[in-house]
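In the previous chapter we treated chains in isolation. Here, by contrast, the input contains six separate entities that must be folded as one system, with a combined length of 944 residues.
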Amino acid sequence: MALKTETERRSWRQDPEAVKRDILAVALSEFAENGLSGARVETIASRTRTSKRMIYYYFTDKLGLYTAALEAAYMKVREGEAALDLGGLPPARALARLVAFTFDHHRRNPDFIRMVMIENIHNAENLVASQVIRDMNVAAIDKLEDICKRGQEDGTFRQGLDPVALHWQISAASFFNVSNRPTFNAIFGPNLFTGTAQADLRRQIVESVLAIALTPPALTEIRAEIAGTAAPGLSG
Amino acid sequence: MALKTETERRSWRQDPEAVKRDILAVALSEFAENGLSGARVETIASRTRTSKRMIYYYFTDKLGLYTAALEAAYMKVREGEAALDLGGLPPARALARLVAFTFDHHRRNPDFIRMVMIENIHNAENLVASQVIRDMNVAAIDKLEDICKRGQEDGTFRQGLDPVALHWQISAASFFNVSNRPTFNAIFGPNLFTGTAQADLRRQIVESVLAIALTPPALTEIRAEIAGTAAPGLSG
Amino acid sequence: MALKTETERRSWRQDPEAVKRDILAVALSEFAENGLSGARVETIASRTRTSKRMIYYYFTDKLGLYTAALEAAYMKVREGEAALDLGGLPPARALARLVAFTFDHHRRNPDFIRMVMIENIHNAENLVASQVIRDMNVAAIDKLEDICKRGQEDGTFRQGLDPVALHWQISAASFFNVSNRPTFNAIFGPNLFTGTAQADLRRQIVESVLAIALTPPALTEIRAEIAGTAAPGLSG
Amino acid sequence: MALKTETERRSWRQDPEAVKRDILAVALSEFAENGLSGARVETIASRTRTSKRMIYYYFTDKLGLYTAALEAAYMKVREGEAALDLGGLPPARALARLVAFTFDHHRRNPDFIRMVMIENIHNAENLVASQVIRDMNVAAIDKLEDICKRGQEDGTFRQGLDPVALHWQISAASFFNVSNRPTFNAIFGPNLFTGTAQADLRRQIVESVLAIALTPPALTEIRAEIAGTAAPGLSG
DNA sequence: AATGAATGAGCCTTCATTCAT
DNA sequence: GATGAATGAAGGCTCATTCAT
């Protein structure tokens, strides 16, 4: 099969990590597109620089490859999140930026969203089995927890706020925006997914989350602030 | 397989509609559980009172059966929604009740949620192909459109409100609450899915949607109202 | 593959039992020749009038086919044994005939011997799992038990004789004669497996078993008898 | 796989014979357990202190390794037999001891028995190909031939006795006792393989062989002898 | 309308073996 | 001598689908 020339092969031989990365990248895209049972090992292999045999050499079986791809998807997204710099922003502004960033980040990573959808179809069985992913996600709301703590200390955030519940709110809107776009689009048309409508949605989500987290006076204040300036952190 | 007595067989013979319903119910549950490629025609047939041949007789092929199951899922859910009686409620209260109802309704119909997830994985290709479903969904926001119109007429709702965008907001939270429960639960634990936490979430979603739709004075007013009474429409 | 004409196919269509028998006969010969892991489903199928797919349709998997073939081998051999008529022979003569018959019967059924060898290599795991075979074998020493009882009643057989132990003696020689012929032949040459040498071996085995079972006087008597007549029942 | 420390490695480095012995021991046990096609080169390698590559380096291919293991099995057993000291025993007693020893020796070497079974399944093809084994086996009945000669010279053994046929008798019982234990046990229960039953079987086999080899008067005599003494050579 | 039998394409996986260093 | 990486051929098995009655 796979007609690969001898020179092509030599170039990446003896670099197992590169081979694994290559396989993983293809696998991620195939699984994201077709699901666990829908993806074909054959197809994955053919899009790879290596052979089907090497997939089994490095990943044991189809499920092993899927799990590795799932982990890779999480890792990639978490790395992107880590790049988010909330600098010395005051809590309210930091939260606003975090929400907007999440909304944009999810839009930029549809493969990750699809992998999570697929995992949910499978009742998160493989995610549960992966200690790697569970560890990563514990750290995922560190930023949010920090913001909440600071906001409560300086009195701008409500007391009794649950960072996990707040994360749920942020995720719900940002995730749904990508995951359910096909059906929503099919039923109600593409209007909501154009540039300006998406910007409106994002603004609304930021608003809603702030309204949940902030005390009324702090909310009034930041609204005035935002209205008075072009929000540089929200562009994306 | 499944040893079915002759008398059992006769009971539903000559009733093609019953046979189709039987097949459809099984198919829905199997597709919802395993996805399109994950579900097995063999398994569906064995859980049916009929044979595999009848599936092909009535539904042509696997995809035909899947599409029919998808339509059945939508139909069942839309029927449930139709039962919602917003009576002569004033717009704000009607909206609050609609949001709460949607949240509860989605929780009660995980199979429907899963079918929609699966459709999204398949880029809504089969939903697009089904005129039946598209028609149903146009009617799905009739209630919401009516509420918006009435709210804008009596001045309690903001101008320039888009019913579809509002529907998006309502759906996002209600859908995500069911669709992503497995992964969310796996990562952050089950706390958010207990009775009281779910009630909190629902209240928050109602709040957020009202905050988006209502004018500030109307919002202040309904908050006072709700605070003063046990909200009877939100139970469930 | 398997170029089988349409007319060929029609002749045995809709006769599932014939198809199963056909598969089973081929499977028995292939497993006996190559062992469980050595046999190829592909090869079995190609020697069959049907396709590989039907093997799985009727026998679930390779192990299922193997077990069925093992059962078939036992069944065939036990049927052959059932044909042995010990009539109203006195115990000593009946025993002599039984031993000689077993020796001959094993020689005539090398496939059965090989299946039992293979089962022993697999620690009799599949035999243990087959209730069918275990039941058959309980009946296998009925004849011998009857002979022993009669012999002890008329005083020609020793007291305290164990039919199972006697069966062991009979089997050991008769089985080994077939099972170990290849290695024995390779090392010591083919002399022992020629017609006259085999006849000598058989006579010796009959002698040995009688010596174990009979009381000294009865043994002396039957030796005289046998010497005086050509043993018609022992030819083979 | 198998994390082996550098120091471990050095200890047997530069000692090719030790490496070969190590491989051979593992191979013997794996082939004996699983047969030729059932054994996995991978598994053998992993149980070894070396790598898979070394197997091919030293033994060319799987069949080469199997043949070497077969030879090793024969060699080990023949060495054990060589240790048997028949001293200056009179022929009848020597024969009795040889039979008893063989019975015990086979019981102690089930791996060897299984290798011979496997060879028979393969029609002794590899044994035939091994000059080493054929030479060894010619010597295997030297002891027996010597006993026969001495017995015929002193008149205690019958004339016209074939040492090979006698070897066949001894082997049949001793071999079958180990080779067919799994199936026999599965069908008739474990009774025959307990300590006392095995002792009975051994005594019976010794008896039978003596009955075949000795002249009637010599037989009577040795029976008296054995009855009068605890047979020291038969313990095991 | 209904059914058990049959089918071919293709899927996941494994095996013994060899290459490059 | 020694090793991890790599390979092609094939092996067991499953899938949606159709045939003959």
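Residues 62-82 of chain D form the longest helix (21 residues). Residues 1-10, 230-236 of chain D have pLDDT under 50 and may be disordered. Compare these points with the single-chain example from earlier in the chapter.
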